[in-house]
Every structure is written in C-alpha cells, then in structure tokens.
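Task: complex structure prediction.
Instruction: return structure tokens for all chains below.
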Amino acid sequence: NAGVTQTPKFQVLKTGQSMTLQCAQDMNHNSMYWYRQDPGMGLRLIYYSASEGTTDKGEVPNGYNVSRLNKREFSLRLESAAPSQTSVYFCASSKGLGAGEGNEQFFGPGTRLTVL
Amino acid sequence: SQQGEEDPQALSIQEGENATMNCSYKTSINNLQWYRQNSGRGLVHLILIRSNEREKHSGRLRVTLDTSKKSSSLLITASRAADTASYFCATAPWSGYSTLTFGKGTMLLVSP
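Output:
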C-alpha cells in the first residue's frame, strides 16, 4: 500500500518550458488535490478534483492545468513555467470532499520544482 | 486566503517539556484538523475535532476547540526530539462540501 505517490521528486526547468507532475493514489479515494507550498505562505490549493471526471480551481490556479486521468491519477501541468512557480508541490487525496470525519487528506512526498 | 493562523510561528523547547501551539480562524467551521510535516516530507493527519466537541485526545496529543473565540490549541505532552516538525491547522467550512484551508504553520524544535 504505497498511499499517494508523486513523480518526479525534483525538477529544474527553464522559463517557458513545460512539464507535467504526476500523482497517483491506491486508497480508492474519490477526491484529489494539488497544493503548492512556499516559505511563509503555508499550503495553497491550486486545483482539486472532487470525484473522477470533475476538476475545480482552488486559490491559485493561474498558470496551471490539471487532468483527472482516472480515479487513481491526477496530474498537474505547467504549460509555460515562470520563476514565480518555483515551489514545492504536494498532491493529496481524501475519501470525499465533504467536511465530515473520515475525509482527512493524505499527502504525497512532494515535488521540488525550480524554474530558472 | 488563509483561514487558520497558527501561533507562535516557531517554538523551541527541551525534550520532556510540553508544547502548545494555537490556531485562530475567521469563519464558522464544521471541523478543524491538525497536521504534522517533517522536514522535506508531506503532511500527515494527526487529529480532527468537530465543531460540537471541546476537547479530544490521541496519545500524547490534546486538542481543544473554542468556537466562541474561533480558536483551537494543540498540546503535545512530554515532547521528544522526534516531534520536531511543522504543525498546521486546517479548517473545514460549515457548509460542508468544500476543501480544507490550511494555516501557515508552527515550526516546533525539540532539543535533546
């Protein structure tokens, strides 16, 4: 039982390059999330998917796109990377989106992205 | 926008001491959750307290919630060096069907 996995662990991009961050969960969770974490800013939600086939914007969606490929996989794409997107990116999943007990989030190990 | 704000931003204690960190939030919540993040790792869920609960325990963790003051506290008793981590509160809004909002975290350093 791997939980939430993310690839790659580290990535360096040049401004304008594109890349896709991959995330997969094996807990049969319905909801998945992408966050970015910057020093002093805490976690900020980029996009989320309440269930397979749906995606919604979070707090900071500009410059990103997502795809919920199937129930297990949720990818985050940077079409034209900018230095402001240098951050640590976390994927998370939960049983459901609602606020009820049992919907705590499980996090992946993160991807450290540097855009030069 | 941040819903939860932790206080203090950083806390340094000796092993065996208790550590208390606080979280304040602005709008009505359904529940409040605490997460731990070890350096360079993802967040790990610690405990959830519902809006109709005042106190909850899990091992060496004790969480309180005061909805009238819109605040919560996390107490770690008899701290160990392994408790060194950042601790985040996250609030689930009263409306229920929405995402969590995380605070900026408290960095705890427990020295041997």
